[in-house]
Design goal:
CATH superfamily: Vaccinia Virus protein VP39
Helix content: 40-55%
Strand order of the largest sheet: 3-2-1-4-5-7-6
Number of strands: 7
Number of helices: 9
Number of domains: 1
Oligomer: single chain
Shape: globular
Structural class: alpha/beta
Length: 239
C-alpha cells in the first residue's frame, strides 16, 4: 500500500505510450548504449543517505528508478509518469528484479505532484524536463517535495556544441536518430526528439532556471561531447 494519495491524472503521455514497446530498444540504439552510463552517474550524483526516499519524475519504463534502487540498496524509490503503457513495462521490470517492496510506480502529473511538501530526500529526472510544457512549474514542484538539504539531479539531452565532434554528434541527433526511430517504431516521436533537443535552453540558461526555482549550489556536468548534461541542485536548509 502506498504512503501517498496518488490519484491518476486523465489521459496523458499518448506519444510515449505509442512507442512504449520499443522505447528501451530505441534508447539503446540511438544513444549507442551510452544512456546506461549517464543514468549511473545521475544516480551517484545524489549522494543519498542509505535509507533515503527518492522521486524519479518522468520515470517512463523505470530505467532510472531501477538504477537508483541498485545504487542505494536500502532506499525507497517512487517513479511517476503520465504514460500508462510505459509504466506497465516498468512495473514488469520491477517485478522481474524482485523490487516491488522498494520501487513503486504511480501515474500522475509532473506539474501537480500528488505528494505532500518535503516528502523526498532526493529527486531525479532523465530525459523528461525537455518535454514539459511549463518547466518552471515542474521545477517548483520538485523543489516543493524535496526535504531541506535534499538534492535534485536532472539528466537531459542537449544540442551538441562546436568542433568536429559536435558536428558528428549533430549529424547523429538530427539525421540518424529520427530515421532509426521512425524505422523501428513507425512513430513521429523521434522526429520530435531532434526538434525538442534543438529547442531546449543551453546549459547555462537551464542552470539559471534551477536557481530561479529555489535550488542552491547548482552545477552542470557535460557528458559525451556535450550530447547530454547532468544538472544538480540542492534544496536550502539543514539536511
Amino acid at each position: 500500500m502506498s504512503d501517498f494519495d496518488t490519484v491518476p491524472e486523465p489521459g496523458s503521455g499518448p506519444m510515449f505510450d505509442r512507442i512504449a514497446s520499443r522505447y528501451d530498444l530505441l534508447n539503446r540504439v540511438i544513444s549507442l548504449g551510452l544512456d546506461r552510463g549517464w543514468r549511473r552517474r545521475t544516480a551517484k550524483a545524489l549522494e543519498l543517505a542509505p535509507d533515503g526516499c527518492v522521486l524519479d519524475l518522468a520515470t517512463g519504463t523505470a530505467d532510472l528508478a531501477l538504477e537508483l534502487a541498485a545504487t542505494y540498496p536500502s532506499a525507497r524509490v517512487v517513479g511517476l509518469d503520465q504514460a500508462s503503457r510505459m509504466l506497465a513495462i516498468g512495473a514488469r521490470k520491477v517485478e522481474r528484479r524482485g523490487l516491488r517492496a522498494r520501487v513503486e510506480l504511480v501515474r500522475g502529473d509532473a506539474s501537480e505532484l500528488p505528494f505532500p511538501a518535503a516528502s523526498f530526500a532526493a529527486c531525479t529526472m532523465a530525459f523528461g524536463i525537455r518535454n514539459m510544457p511549463d518547466r518552471m512549474r515542474v521545477l517548483g514542484e520538485l523543489r516543493r517535495v524535496l526535504r531541506p538539504g535534499g538534492r535534485v539531479a536532472i539528466l537531459e539531452l542537449t544540442e551538441p556544441g562546436g568542433g568536429w565532434l559536435g558536428r558528428v554528434a549533430r549529424c547523429h541527433v538530427h539525421g540518424l536518430v529520427p530515421r532509426v526511430g521512425a524505422l523501428l517504431s513507425g512513430a513521429e516521436a523521434y522526429r520530435y526528439l531532434a526538434r525538442s533537443i534543438a529547442a531546449f535552453p543551453p546549459p547555462g540558461e537551464f542552470v539559471g532556471s534551477l536557481g530561479a526555482a529555489g535550488f542552491e549550489r547548482t552545477r552542470v556536468e557535460a557528458m559525451t561531447w556535450g550530447v547530454a548534461h547532468l544538472y544538480v541542485g540542492d534544496a536550502g536548509g539543514a539536511a
